[in-house]
Amino acid sequence: MASAYMSFWRICLVLFLGFILGFSIRTIYNLTAYQPCYWKHDPVIINCTGKAIKEETIQNAIKFWKEKGEHVYFYEYDYRESICNKKESVYGFIVLKTQTEEILEKDVLASTSRESKLGIIQASTIIFKPGTHNLALLLEHELGHAFGYGHVKIPGHIMHPYYDMMGTKFW
User: Fold this and answer.
1) Total domains, the chain
2) pLDDT digits 0-9 by tens, 90-101
3) Assigned domain for 170 exists
4) If you average pLDDT over residues 126-134, what whole number do you get?
5) I need a surface site. Which of 1, 77, 133, 156 has the fewest CB within 10 A?
6) What is the mean pLDDT of the chain?
């Protein structure tokens, strides 16, 4: 009888520790993958893709994130040589570009890079593979990265890492 009683409490202890460990891992994931960094001031989006991306695509993506609480100062649809020709990131801007050389992996449609200091995003660049600029939800997903969000493996979530699993969910 005493042995069964001890086994019961051992099982309870293991379950409790498993719960605490699971909760801790989930909390760390949410703190690091959910939005580990953010913009201190609203960024400017500049289109350096020319007419490859439709203005409506940019407007829809901005609207999507505005509804989620993220804002941009404004966007510039027309190509601005002074910004678009720079190789390095531009402080305060989210720059939209088209891949001009093979830098993205075969199955990657677009990629976002961010520069940040102490959790504050300074600049971001989104690079699209040619022909992918106007795919549904792709700019919304990449802007999510530009706003500091990481991937979330929940089917239908905008930040799902696989395009065919993305949707419009956001927490």
Assistant:
1) 2
2) 999 999 999 988
3) no
4) 96
5) 1
6) 88
Phi, psi for residue 50 in degrees, rounded to 5:
70, -135
3-state SS assignment for residue 8: helix
47 and 25 Cβ atoms separated by less than 8 Å = no
Take residue 63 and report the two structure tokens written for it.
């609207």
Give CA separation, 63 vs 34, 103, 153, 164, in Å: 20, 29, 23, 22
Rounded to whole angstroms, the Cα distance separating 122 from 97 reads: 17
Of 83, 89, 85, the residue nearest 117 (C-alpha):
89
Q: What is the pTM of this model?
A: 0.80
Per the CB < 8 A criterion, the answer to whether 122 and 76 are in contact is: no
29 and 45 share a domain? no
Residue 149 within any structural domain of the chain: yes
d(CA 25, CA 103): 33
Burial of 37 by CB count in 10 Å (0-12 exposed, 13-18 middle, 19+ buried)?
middle
Q: Are residues 22 and 98 in the same domain?
A: no
Q: Whole domain around residue 23: which residue ranges?
A: 1-34
Alpha helices by DSSP H, the chain? 2-29, 55-67, 81-84, 138-146
Give 137-158 pLDDT, tens digit per residue: 999 999 999 999 999 999 999 9
**Which residue do the tokens 């939005």 mark?**
35
Regarding whether 135 and 101 lie in a shared domain, the answer is: yes
